[in-house]
Each structure stands twice: as structure tokens, then as C-alpha cells.
Design goal:
By secondary structure, the chain is an all-alpha fold. Helix content is 68%, strand content 0%. It contains three helices and no strands. The radius of gyration is 50 Å and the shape is rod-shaped.
Length: 136
């Protein structure tokens, strides 16, 4: 009977020591391990995805941000085409500017002709006046 008690005591001591070492190994783990059924285990990653240089990915944009960027790019593309004169609006503007330029040139010629005509009339009037007065 003494042997039986001694064996039980040794068994209890061994169990206590095993529990103590297990607790030391599981410092921050809970005593009871509960498996979460919703937990997804981490998948194995490809070597190319784990490359240190390629870890930078583009941030995901919201729909509004993406649409705003697309609008801005479209506006810049249109302005570039407009500056090159490839849009309908640019062609109409250039045609209108050509018409205005032609009208201004014609108006300038007309003013020059009228000015020359006035100068010639003034010179003729002065010549007639000096002739009438007998001056040379």
C-alpha cells in the first residue's frame, strides 16, 4: 500500500510538472484551445508575390476617385487634341479666326486707301488754293 501511494504521488508530481512546462511553453495562449470555424488558414504565397521589390501594390481606388481620374485624363486628352487642331471645335475656331483675320486685313487696306485719298485730296486742295492765290 505504501508503494501504491508513492506511485500515485509520483504520478501527481509528474502530471503537475508536465502542466507547468506546458504553461511555460504557452505563455500567452489560453488554457483551452478553441477552434474558430470561420478562421481561414493562411494560404501559401507564391515566390513572385513574396519578392521584396514587388510588395508595393497600387492602392485600391474608390469608384468616385477612379471616375474623377478618368475624367481628368479625358479632359487632358481633349485639350491636347484641341491644341493640335484635331477636334471639330478647334477646326471651327480656326476657321472663325481666319475669317476675322481676313476681315481685319481688308479693313486695314480700306483705311490705308481712304487715308491716301484724303491726303491726295488735301494736297489737291492746297495746290488749288496756292494756284488761286498765285503762289508757287
Amino acid at each position: 500500500m505504501k508503494k501504491k501511494k508513492k506511485v500515485e504521488v509520483n504520478l501527481v508530481v509528474a502530471v503537475n510538472q508536465a502542466l507547468m512546462t506546458k504553461k511555460k511553453n504557452q505563455k500567452n495562449k489560453s488554457v483551452v484551445d478553441v477552434e474558430n470555424p470561420n478562421r481561414v488558414p493562411p494560404k501559401m504565397k507564391k515566390a513572385s508575390a513574396a519578392a521584396p521589390g514587388k510588395q508595393e501594390e497600387k492602392p485600391q481606388l474608390t469608384r468616385k476617385e477612379r471616375e474623377e481620374i478618368e475624367k481628368q485624363k479625358a479632359r487632358e486628352r481633349y485639350q491636347k487634341l484641341h491644341a493640335e487642331g484635331k477636334t471639330d471645335e478647334a477646326r471651327a475656331d480656326l476657321a472663325r479666326l481666319a475669317i476675322i483675320k481676313q476681315q481685319r486685313e481688308e479693313a486695314a487696306k480700306k483705311r490705308d486707301e481712304e487715308k491716301k485719298a484724303r491726303e491726295a485730296a488735301a494736297a489737291a486742295k492746297q495746290a488749288a488754293t496756292s494756284k488761286a492765290l498765285g503762289r508757287r
